[in-house]
Write a structure and sequence with these properties.
With 183 residues, the chain is mainly β. The chain is built from one helix and nine strands, in the order H-E-E-E-E-E-E-E-E-E.
C-alpha cells in the first residue's frame, strides 16, 4: 500500500509540473510599433528621427518582473536652416492595442548628445492609461546635425496578486515624434 501511495504522489507532482509549465507558456506578449525612420520639416529646419534596432519591439514569454521587458532607443537629429528660430518637437507614446488587465508602465531617459537645445526630462515610472501619453517636448536652436537620444523602457510588474487574467494578453505601442506648431 505504501508503494501505491508513492506512485500516486509522484503522478500528482508530474501533473502539477505540467500544469505550471502550460500556464507559463501562455504568458506571452508582443509589443509592436508602427513607426519608421522619419523626417520632420519645420520652418526652422529639418529633424530626422531614427529608431535603433528597427521599428518593432517583440517580447515573448512575458512574466511579471521588475526588469523592463522592452527597450526602445531612438534619436532626434536637428539641423537648423535659420539661426533665430527654435525647432521644437513633441514625443508621444501611442497605444495601438492593450489587452492587459494589470498595468503596463514605462520610463523615459534622455541624453543631450549634441549639447544643443533641450531634451525631455526623465519620466519616472508611469502607468499606461488611455490611448496615448505625451512624454514631453524638446527643441534645437541653431543646430547643425545635433542629436537628442532617448531610451523608453516598458515594464510588466508583479503586483503581488493573481495576474493569470493576463495570460495571452498583448500590447502594441509606437512612438510618435511631431513638430510643435509655430516652431
Amino acid at each position: 500500500m505504501k508503494e501505491h501511495g508513492k506512485v500516486i504522489f509522484y503522478i500528482l507532482i508530474v501533473l502539477v509540473v505540467i500544469a505550471v509549465g502550460v500556464t507559463f507558456a501562455f504568458f506571452t506578449s508582443e509589443v509592436g510599433s508602427g513607426e519608421d525612420d522619419t523626417s520632420i520639416t519645420s520652418n526652422a529646419g529639418v529633424m530626422n528621427i531614427t529608431y535603433n534596432g528597427g521599428s518593432k519591439i517583440t517580447a515573448t514569454k512575458l512574466l511579471p518582473s521588475d526588469t523592463a521587458f522592452a527597450t526602445k532607443v531612438f534619436t532626434v537629429t536637428g539641423t537648423s536652416t535659420t539661426k533665430d528660430l527654435s525647432m521644437k518637437y513633441q514625443v508621444k507614446l501611442v497605444v495601438d492595442n492593450n489587452t492587459f488587465t494589470s498595468p503596463i508602465s514605462y520610463t523615459l531617459t534622455s541624453v543631450n548628445t549634441g549639447n544643443n537645445g533641450s531634451v525631455i526630462g526623465t519620466v519616472n515610472e508611469t502607468k499606461i492609461t488611455g490611448t496615448s501619453a505625451v512624454l514631453g517636448s524638446g527643441s534645437f536652436i541653431n543646430a547643425q546635425s545635433r542629436i537628442h537620444t532617448y531610451t523608453l523602457k516598458l515594464y510588466y510588474k508583479d503586483t503581488g496578486t493573481d495576474q493569470s487574467a493576463d495570460m495571452g494578453a498583448n500590447i502594441k505601442v509606437h512612438i510618435e515624434v511631431t513638430a510643435v506648431t509655430g516652431a
